[in-house]
């Protein structure tokens, strides 16, 4: 009989990997000592319970369970059969008799034995199947403004949030409607169905906690040292006929030389038996580490079980789950309707991703439609804002982690119509193929590599339709995109750094990345360092961008952005920071735009005259050049809050002045001073005086009143009215409303 060769090593390996994945867990029952301890405990538990004799339906001797008593055997069989139909039970029995992979069979049985050992009395081993509905909230908001720049003074928004659970799988339901902001010409409704993964993990974890004592599942209650001593005592007692007298502790804690000396007066056969046991257990160092290793293991187990995502990974082995429930355990995301996916693409469709055994797959399909009335007449014949897309991404590793992924995108665009307006664009097919990989450099950091290639084909009414994929290798450099990004840190210096380089050809098109640019070479660097236990910090960043503007000439647009930040926390009540920012844009060798700004900011809190306050202030000087116009601004801003009686006073001041009066931006002064207070127990109010002066544009003074109330526990109402008077008449007054109201009504179900 073979016993655990390295008990401590097994414990360390088990605990260090138990938070990774259930299917990669080493099984602590692979050692006979722990397995026998579990069976002894089960035999004791069912010793006093009478059971009708039933022939064994499992090959217990073959499964290493021949020491399990009849009562415990029958209960174990019932546990295995729980939740399985007759066909499932027959299939399981055929598996036991025909299983040729002894390691997989032993792993399956040992896991089930641990589950049986940890099962709480009279506990279900399946997820609840009763459908549930959890309405999270309903709200409606109406806004009225007399700003004539809007097509309609009314704006309405309604929101419904609900959660439906079927078969313990929760689906989040979100619906919103927006209307009135342009005379109903383009009202919008958005519906989204989203699998709530976190709620599902919480539900699975709750059922696990109700059905099992998970500490017992991880054998946290078994004293491994005592179990080894008991095992050795049993083994040594079998050699009594050889007239030897060595204790279990001597076998455990004497090294081989010491044990040989202790055995020198015993029969040779007895010496060989004892030394064989010693070889199975390992050296003295491991035995001395045993108690400490188990204590550390218990602490790690307790930490792991606090997080549902960790405990839920063992659910498929302990709960009787349907095929769909098991599948959803590995689904990362599943959503349909008005969704956001890929790289900031908002579309109507469906998307989902799946990760299991470090294998990742993502599928998405839908239609991205950015067409609006304001775009009509501005669309080129080759530029499309509406695409029907299909997307596939697969590989090893999760997104954002150590990964190697391959993805393909197919997109089709056709002339679109909306509210009677048509876009004069050609039909187009775009195919994009990408490879992304993250390389782990260990202590040096990581590198992300992304290589992408696109291909496009245009069709008119007279042309034969062609697939863009068939021309994928055409114009390789002009239709390719390459991205490299490095990130790392040096902990002992408090230093972190990032660097990147992106290239895209002038013919590169990717509807899955609508905000990406083409014909661009872009690179940058960021360095950040902390000192004095994070009391001081400094960051430097530089980004350079070189973009082609024509396929026929060498004209380019070059931009450079540089920023430097420094922060120092003097005390818990005072922090000062400084920021330097410069943006430069050059076109055809001439500086077309320059923005340079130096700012000093402060954050303070404390007491003045015994009254608590907080203050955030900044002062800055800004240089802005646009073609022949050159401005120099002084920027001041401050927000100050302090307690006054039962309420709080909040003041906001913003001042901007162009010293050169170059009229790039007007001189502006905004003052907002208000008082927030509780009128009654469930009614809170806010009153504010407003003054705005934008040179030669508008000058207003006004009053804003806000009221919010909690009604009948679940209803909440918020009202706001903002009335202003023009102190100066200008042609631009109509851009600024004089009266604005907002009404919001919310009903909270839970």
Condensed summary:
The chain is of the alpha+beta class.
Would you kindly provide a written description of the structure presented here, covering whatever features stand out?
With 750 residues, the chain is of the alpha+beta class. Helices cover 22% and strands 44% of the residues. The chain contains 15 helices and 28 strands. It has a 26-stranded antiparallel beta barrel. The protein has a two-stranded antiparallel ribbon with strand order 10-11. α1 runs parallel beside α12 (284-304) and α2 crosses α5. Mean pLDDT is 81; it is low at 1-30 and 371-382.
In which range does the helix fraction lie? 10-25%
Q: Let me know the largest β-sheet.
A: 26 strands, antiparallel, barrel
**Alpha carbon gap, first and last residue:** 59 Å
Question: Rounded to an integer, what's the Rg over CA atoms?
Answer: 36 Å
Structural class, by secondary structure, is alpha+beta
**What is the average per-residue confidence, as pLDDT, rounded to a whole number?**
81
Strand content: 35-45%
Specify the overall morphology: elongated
Low-confidence stretches: 1-30, 371-382
The number of helices is: 15
Number of strands: 28
Top keywords for this entry?
single chain, 750 residues, 26-stranded antiparallel β-barrel, two-stranded antiparallel ribbon, elongated, disordered N terminus
